[in-house]
Amino acid sequence: AAPAGVVAFGVKHTEGVSVEVAFRGRAEVGPVPSGTRWPLDEGTVLRFSMSQASAEVNDNKVIVSFYAEGGQPIDQAGVFLTGIGLSLDVDADRDGVVEKNNPNKASWTWGPEGHGAILLVSCDRESP
């Protein structure tokens, strides 16, 4: 997706985003000093992710700057990100209330006075 004439790129991102650049069989992970540029070679991969949910929609972003030979900026591309938190929780004591800190989550006991998650899985084939 880089414009014609690009030989290098740099990345800026907000605090809630983790960035990894992999090129020439090497990966650089973690905080990258401001002004760092990478060669744009075939097979270069830019990965970004978020490890926590956003406070609001589009509150994180990644900006990629493209550079020509000699370091002249050519263009920029940006992505706004919203991290969504997902949690699969259970009614561990089967009382109709899902509690985050129920001590019965770590074990399972069979029977009417039992505790632990009951998982019902639909294994039929809905479509070919």
TrEMBL record:
Domain Protein-arginine deiminase (PAD) central as annotated: residue spans: 84-127
Listed GO CC annotations: cytoplasm; nucleus
An example Gene Ontology molecular-function term: calcium ion binding
Annotated ranges, domain Protein-arginine deiminase (PAD) N-terminal: 1-82
Name of the protein in its database record: PADI2 deiminase
Gene source species: Chauna torquata
Underlying gene: Padi2_0
